[in-house]
Give the backbone structure.
Amino acid sequence: SFWLVMRLLPMKEPDRSWRSIKGQWKKDAESVGEDFSTFSTGSFTAYDGLTKDGDHPSLYCLSDGERIHAACQVSRLMMSKFPSPILRARFILVSPVYELGIAGAGQYAQMMVALFSGIVWLSRDTMSASHIRFFLKSPGDSQYFAALQASTPGSLFSKFTIDGALIECSLTEEEMAETA
């Protein structure tokens, strides 16, 4: 079933390489008679460039253990307006099953939230950061995150804003302290 646990993992040879992900997605598109080359535009070129010499450490993919649902670039960097490193996630790509409506809108929403959760998890784990900038595929995707803007006691976020296709959030300090 679709409700598998999805995890954000580094894009790595052999089975999670960019080449094998493209192969899987090509089959997905062709299964409904679509020409895959119409999908492999803009962001694909960025991935092709980043992986031309092999695996690239900033590329991650959302996997359920069998299939890759999405991919994105996650970088840890300094920005002048923040005192400590931030995580920036961008260049989101999703499998053609979402683009072509093979998966329903609810499944797309669930996958986007799983992708974001994976970035939050990275910020707590291997790429420690207290602020995240998450660039959505489109401003329309922000609807899946609207509920997170309401600040509640015990919330994961001390600040959560959506501006067009950009989500910016700061993680609450207590949360950071527990994992330190």
Remarks:
- The longest strand covers residues 68-77.
- The helical segments are 18-31, 42-50, 96-99, 105-124, 173-179.
- The radius of gyration is 17 Å.
- The mean pLDDT is 88.
